[in-house]
Structure formats: C-alpha cells, structure tokens
Amino acid sequence: MKRTPVLVLGGLIVLVIMALFLFRGKGDAAGGQYDIETAKVSKGDVARIVSASGAVRALTTVEVGSQLSGQVVELYADFNSKVKAGQLVARIDPQTFATRVQQAKADLLSAKANVAVQQAGIARAMATLSQAQKDFQRQEQLLKEDAISQALFDATERALAVAEADLALAKAQHQSALASMTQREAALETANVDFERTYIRSPIDGVVIERSIDVGQTVAASFSAPVLFRIAQDLGDIRIDAAVVEADIGGITEGDKVVFTVDAYPDDQFSGEVEQVRLAATELQNVVTYTVVIAARNPQMKLLPGMTANVEITADKREGVLRIASGALRFSPPKNGPPVAEAGASGRGGNERRGGAFARQFAQMGISEPVQKAIGADMRKEMQAFAKLAQSPAAQFDRNGMRQRRRAIIERVLKRHLSAEQYDAYVKQQKASANLKRAQAWEYTEDGTLVPHALVLGLDDGEYVEIIRGAKEGDAFVTRLRIKSDGKS
After folding, report:
1. How big is the chain by its Cα radius of gyration, in Å?
2. Which of 489, 50, 45 is nearest to 260 (CA)?
3. Residue 347 or 365, more confident
4. Phi then psi for 184, rounded to 5 degrees?
5. Which stretch of DSSP H or E encloses residue 177?
6. Which residues pair with 271 in a beta bridge?
7. Fewer Cβ close by (within 10 Å): the C or N end of the chain?
8. Interhelix angle for 369-390 vs 354-365, to 10°?
C-alpha cells in the first residue's frame, strides 16, 4: 500500500513528459521550431575565375654576349642603365685583333704585288708568242721555196708551241694570283670583323637588367658565347607566363580579362589580358600544366622582371543572368526536419520529355512552326518503327547498338528537314546542353513543407551559380535549416 503513491507519482511524470514531447512535435510540424535561412534567385553576373601564378618578364629580353675570347678592358653600362641600339656597352682587349688586321693588310699587299708580277708575265709571254708566230710564218714560206731545211722549220714550229704554252701558263698563274688576292681580302675582312667585335654594343633600345662581367675579367668564347648583359627592351609592356593546370585550361582563350597582384604591392591590383595559350604541355610530378601568356601595361614601372604574379583569369562570364547562391544547392533536408513533398509537387522542374526539349531548342534557333510540325510527324513515324524493332529479343541483348540506331534516326530526320547551317547550330546546342549540370534546390512553403525543385545550371564561380531553367527571379531556396532546442535558436 505504501508503494501505491510512488507508482502514481511516477506515472504522472511519464504522462507529463509524453505531453511535452507531443506538443513539441506539433510545434515542429507548424514550422515554429526551425531557423530557416534562404537565398533568393536574382539577376547578376557569374564568372568562372581560374587562379594561377607566373613570373613577370619583359616583352623582349636579349642576352648580349661575346663571340671573341679576351679580357674585358672597359665597361660602358651597368645595372639599370638605359641603352640605345648600337650603343657601346663593353670593350674586349683589341691588341691581338688589331695585330691580325695589320698582318691581313700586309698579306693583301703581297697578293696584289704578285698579281702585278703575273700580269707582267702575261705581257712577256704574249710578246714572245708574237715573235714566235712571225718566225714561223717566215720559215714556212722559206720551206715552200726549199730555202731552209726541214729541221730548221721544225725548230721554229716547236718554238711557237712553247710560246703558246708559256702564255697559257702565265694566264693560269695570273688567275691563281687573283684568287690568292681574293683570299687575302677575305682574311682582312674577317680580321676587321673580329676587331669590330671587340666593341660590345646593345642590339636594342632597353634597360640593362643584368651584368655578368667586370673590368679585367677574361671572356672565354671557345664553345659558346658567354652572356655579358641581359637587356630588357621595354619594361612598360610586360608579360606573365602563368602555369595553368589542365583541369582549368578549358575555356581560356585569347582576349580573356586578367587581374593579378604581386607580393611587392599587395594592395595594388593590376590588369591585363590573355595574349596566347601555348599548346606545349609541361609535366611535373604527374601534374600537367600549360603556359598562358598574359600581356599587361606597366606605366609606373612597379612590375619588375622575375616578380611572382598571382593571376585570376576570367575564363567565362555571364552578365545579367538568373543566379542563386551556391549554398542553396548544397542543402539537403535533415531526417528529423520538416516534411518533404514528392518530387515534381511544385509543378516545376522534373524531367522534361524529349519533345519539349526539341521544341525549346527549335524555338531558340528560330525554326518555323510548320517545320517543327513536319519534324515531329516524321520523328513519330520513325520512332514507331524503331519501337517495334526494340521489342525483339535480339534488341534486348544489344542495348548499345539500339542507342546508336536511335541517335541515327534523330540525325537522319533532322538533316531531312533542316539546312546545313541549322543542323550545325543544333549540334552546337546539344554539345552545350551536355555540359550543363543539374541539381536540386529546396523551397520552404508556408505550410511547413520542403518542396524540391529540379534546376538546370550553367556557369559556377564558387559563390553564385547560373540558373538556366527551373526557377524564376524572386524564388527563395533553403540554404540552412536549424532545429531550435527550446523554442530559442
């Protein structure tokens, strides 16, 4: 009997707890026990930004070297010196090369004298030949008159032949002397060129950004031309070689806008544009990157060669499109949250039939309604025959082949009714549609229900996502739902 009050008290406590639980459940169903955060569909800009980094360089950087070996005796330029094309920047010791020039000049004078000697030899040989011809003519006439012996005539004939040979020899020696003189002239020209190369001159207008020599240093150009200076042509017009990973290179084209910063001026933002996307890939530790060349102006000369630029490339941009905060696409209803409606209950979203997709694409392409009707009738006729074929037992085991046949039917019907330009436009739209993404967003209604909406999405910049279909401006979708503990958030 003493235990009866205790049991009654315990039962009352259990009843109170059950009542509180039931009352809280009703409050939840009414939606008063949730903190709901939503994002509205609005119009604005969405851009795909690609981040990368690269080194700043001058538009043109020329390495000035020496083709000669020797000691540097004079320097006429230093770091940051502004130089003009043809300006003297350094001098190699010219003594050895000046001596070679003098020797080449002397060799040329000797060759010219030899040419003169050979010319005199030709004149002598010609005179001898002339006399031999006269003697031969006289002896020939005397031989006819039997005034001289045959032996004497033969000697005269031989002398004529020797004179002709001497003239040919003199002419050949003259040609050899001329050739030797040409060689000496070339040697002198080479010596002069080498002597002139002791003057190291700037090939362009620009600024010296690096000097690798000092006075007294010996330059060795035996195997390759040593670099003495690096000259940047114009630091007012710079380039950035940004390394972009292969996953982000798609969509980057010439003319895309770029903004970038450098560590030296963290509060300053510079702008430029994509000048070139190089086709050669670089692979490092299984990461493939492509070089994107960015052109930018540097009027204040803040950007220096070698600085690391952190760039953001606007690979694609949509202006004035419907967009939603990306958080709305990451939300999913909790198990102990509000009731969830069936998909498609909103009357929007859901899977569209192929006929509706065709009609929308044709409308965007400007296809007339009669042509659309003709395509629809032709397509239904072809698909009826295809449906009968698809029911055959063989078709059940060749699904890939049936899909290919279905695509071939669609292609054949469209080509039958569309022009080549219209069909190409259709193919481009199909490819663009294949790149579209689909996602689900949730609307919290007044009756406390979560309703799903199927959205077709376009460009995503990480903060906002472009909405192609499935929502209108002003729609609100849940980004966060939190259950209140004691009626307080």
Report:
1. 47
2. 50
3. 365
4. -65, -35
5. helix 150-196
6. 259
7. N
8. 150
pTM above 0.70, yes or no: no
* Structure confidence by residue, pLDDT tens digits, 357-373: 667 677 777 788 888 88
- Residue 71, CB-side half-sphere exposure with 13 Å CA sphere: 6
285-295, pLDDT tens digit by residue?
889 999 999 99
Buried b (16+ CB within 10 A) or exposed e, 316-339: bebeebbbbbbbbbebeeeeebbe
In the chain, what are the domains? 32-37+324-483 (no CATH), 49-58+232-318 (2.40.30.170), 66-93+198-231 (2.40.50.100), 95-196 (1.10.287)
Helix axes 354-365, 420-434, angle to 10 degrees: 120
Q: What is the pLDDT of residue 435?
A: 60
429/163: higher pLDDT: 163
* Residue length of the chain: 489
8 A C-beta contact, residue 229 and residue 237: no
The token duo for 310 is 């952190």
Structure tokens at 362: 């044709």
Residue with tokens 């060749």, as numbered in its chain: 398
